[in-house]
């Protein structure tokens, strides 16, 4: 019968059997799957594992620190962070089309990861100790989905760390292949991972890049990051995290409206709140958040985030609207 201690024990044994004394690499996204997969592998083979975290500059406030500090402190994994925000921002300059943004971010992500990987492989080979394994946080539903071949309509091109190309030089290590999401969380807790990572709500691979409607710039990212941090903070403080699946915060960067703030006229951007309730993200309903919580978020964002003078609520289910705006 299922419990997370048994799973950990079984996986540690299986990973040791597969990997032996070989070296292993793992890409971390900041999300729960890659974090738990890496922690299991680290428990099994310690410093034979090196993790790589690509900061694409499209992360939310504190996410990089959660990985670099909290996650590393709780697991002891060896981590290489690649700061690639300049590369991503220049590649995204002038781009407003959602699919084009997704393609660029996916492409740059793979390039950046492969470069980091090549550096590590070269370093290890120079030590006479080649890296032969790549960890993937593949879950049971992913296995079923890709094997089932039901040909579901592809509405948006998805990007995530799990979708890295299977480099032919690597053998895959997939310690979560038999698990569902809630089981992965239970294993993560048992392994002592930070709660911010273990209970993190879904966040798309392309990050804030697809939550800025219009061109992605450093200034717009900073603005959205502040608004998003306020919304998340207030939702958590109100004890509502368990009630919502996720709450994208979106910047309508190409829209401006007139406002009055202090004793002057403003001409600023709207921020959209998109709280949704869902079981599996295939369908969703907009969450009926308490008015006082909405009021607090709206007041704080308009007072604290310069350039924003209006907060609007998305009251559309999925379908017809998707959860993300792009
Ligand atoms: P949509 O917008 O299609 O989103 O209703 C459904 C769920 O998927 C997440 N999402 C992504 N996750 N890479 C990801 O890992 C992506 O490219 C991506 N796009 C959307 C979205 O946040 C929601 O949970």
From TrEMBL:
Oligomer status and interactors: Homodimer.
Function: Catalyzes the synthesis of GMP from XMP.
GMPS ATP-PPase domain boundaries: 2-200
Gene name linked to the record: guaA
Organism domain of life: Bacteria
GO molecular function (one): GMP synthase activity
Residue ranges the record marks as coiled coil: none
Binding-site positions, ATP: 29-35
Keywords, alphabetical: ATP-binding, Glutamine amidotransferase, GMP biosynthesis, Ligase, Nucleotide-binding, Purine biosynthesis
Enzyme Commission number(s): 6.3.5.2
GO terms for cellular component: cytosol
The name this protein goes by in its record: GMP synthase [glutamine-hydrolyzing]
Catalytic activity: XMP + L-glutamine + ATP + H2O = GMP + L-glutamate + AMP + diphosphate + 2 H(+)
């Amino acid at each position: 019968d299922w419990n997370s201690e048994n799973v950990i024990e079984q996986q540690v044994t299986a990973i040791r059997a597969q990997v032996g004394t070989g070296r292993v690499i793992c890409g971390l996204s900041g999300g729960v799957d890659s974090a738990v997969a890496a922690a299991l592998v680290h428990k099994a083979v310690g410093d034979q594992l090196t993790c790589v975290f690509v900061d694409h500059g499209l992360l939310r406030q504190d996410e990089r620190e959660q990985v670099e500090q909290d996650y590393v402190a709780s697991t002891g994994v060896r981590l290489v962070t690649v700061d690639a925000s300049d590369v991503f921002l220049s590649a995204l300059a002038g781009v407003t089309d959602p699919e084009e943004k997704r393609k660029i971010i996916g492409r740059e992500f793979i390039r950046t990861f492969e470069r980091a990987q090549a550096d590590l492989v070269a370093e290890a080979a120079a030590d006479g100790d080649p890296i032969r394994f790549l960890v993937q946080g593949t879950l049971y539903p992913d296995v079923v989905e890709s094997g089932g071949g039901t040909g579901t309509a592809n509405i948006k091109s998805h990007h995530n760390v799990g979708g890295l190309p299977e480099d032919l030089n690597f053998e895959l290590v997939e310690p979560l292949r038999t698990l569902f999401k809630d089981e992965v969380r239970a294993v993560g807790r048992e392994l002592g991972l930070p709660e911010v990572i273990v209970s993190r709500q879904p966040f798309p691979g392309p990050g804030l890049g697809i939550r800025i409607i219009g061109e992605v710039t450093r200034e717009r990212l900073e603005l959205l990051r502040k608004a998003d941090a306020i919304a998340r903070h207030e939702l958590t403080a109100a004890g509502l995290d368990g009630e919502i699946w996720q709450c994208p915060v979106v910047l309508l960067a190409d829209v401006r409206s007139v406002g009055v703030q202090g004793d002057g006229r403003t001409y600023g951007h709207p921020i959209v709140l998109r709280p949704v309730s869902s079981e599996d993200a295939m369908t969703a309903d907009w969450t009926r958040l308490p008015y006082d919580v909405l009021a607090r978020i709206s007041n704080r964002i308009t007072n604290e985030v310069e350039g924003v003078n209006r907060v609007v609520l998305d009251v559309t289910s999925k379908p017809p609207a998707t959860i993300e705006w792009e």
